[in-house]
Specification:
The structure is a homodimer of 182-residue chains.
Chain A (H helix, E strand, L loop, with lengths): L10 H12 L6 H10 L9 H13 L3 E5 L8 E5 L1 H11 L6 E5 H7 L6 H29 L5 H29 L2
Antiparallel strand pairs in A: 1-2
Chain B binds a DNA duplex (28 and 28 nucleotides) through helix 3.
Chain lengths: 182, 182
DNA sequence: TCCTACATGTAACGAGTTACATGATTTC
DNA sequence: GAAATCATGTAACTCGTTACATGTAGGA
């Protein structure tokens, strides 16, 4: 369906454009970081070290517009997406790239845990499970908090994250059982 | 349970040590790359550009030992893990770090697809589903191929990958339905 | 003869994290 | 008065991919 000309901007740029397009009010870099942490973080994180330089770049390119809006002595620049920004976002959305990259240290350790004894292997699995339960609960809290403020697609995607974690937790339980019954 | 002194080597180093520990025969860099691509790739990829330099580093540190074993004029260096290597692997295995990083461009596009029309949104979801089905089938083929040669833990972990992809595919189906019924 | 697999490596680049630096405002 | 949160930014560093370079061996 879509073309795949290589994109001119980093993925973080499109995350920024995406949130600015979704938001009714203009957002600061700090706001965008909050949104990232409260929604896409589990499948696409972004740090301040990426966001702030990217905002400058997007502004220079005319895809977003920043307006200084300090509160007293506290600096704040609020950004709005431009027509050109919407076009660029749309072009990116239409691309067919669906690459999924994972770097999962927990499961990697489990994979190589043959070198450990049964007890240690079990402990590893329980550790992994606990970590994923923690993520699950964080996600769930965010989900509950933002349920009313977001529209259908993000809602579906948050469910995706929740379900994914639920699957991992269930797998841990099965693996623990399998090792125990060994 | 475990300590968390920061590890001296990159994750790729431990992947190398892990495969050398698991393997009965010595392995070349090329062999290790094959193993990575056929098992851990979906939750921990590694490229030649990482593997070869890391092999040198591990050899200099005495964690592995390389023996030249050319076939005619074709170069080949085969590596074996040393006692020190086993110890280092074990220390890494005992660490509690379970960090999971994902960068999922497909779901990111779906998340921001509110800017698109219903038809385009549906097409995006179907595209994502197709990509994940492809991964699933690759994994399944590998799984079938290696089922006999690997031991319990890797077997369980391959099931993990398969089930994870199955979950994602099922989610795509539900999301497609939700958008269609809208 | 040509293609695929075997085999090893380096260099350039891009992506991303972390630590650091600085300071204001609000809440307890 | 202290701590948390708001707010912006840079620099150093690590990590990882991709492209390039080079060549052999074996099978169609």
């Amino acid at each position: 369906m879509a073309q795949n000309a290589k994109p001119k901007y980093s993925n973080v740029a499109y995350v920024i454009l995406g949130f600015l397009a979704k938001s009714e009010e203009p957002l600061s870099g700090y706001d965008i970081k909050q949104w990232v942490d409260n929604s896409v973080r589990f499948f696409f994180a972004a740090s301040f070290g990426q966001i702030y330089p990217e905002l400058k770049k997007l502004e220079n390119a005319g895809l977003i517009e920043g307006v200084a809006n300090a509160t007293g002595g506290r600096a704040r620049t609020e950004y709005t997406i431009s027509k050109a920004g919407h076009d660029e976002l749309r072009a990116w959305l239409m691309q067919s790239e669906t690459r999924l990259e994972m770097r999962d240290q927990g499961i990697l350790r489990v994979f190589f845990s043959g070198d450990l004894g049964k007890a240690e292997r079990l402990a590893k699995l329980k550790e992994l499970r606990a970590a994923r339960v923690e993520s699950y609960e964080t996600l769930q809290a965010v989900h509950a908090m933002t349920r009313e403020t977001i529209s259908q697609m993000p809602e579906l995607v948050l469910d995706y994250g929740l379900g994914l974690h639920q699957y991992v937790i269930d797998w841990c339980d099965r693996a623990i059982k399998a090792v125990e019954d060994q």
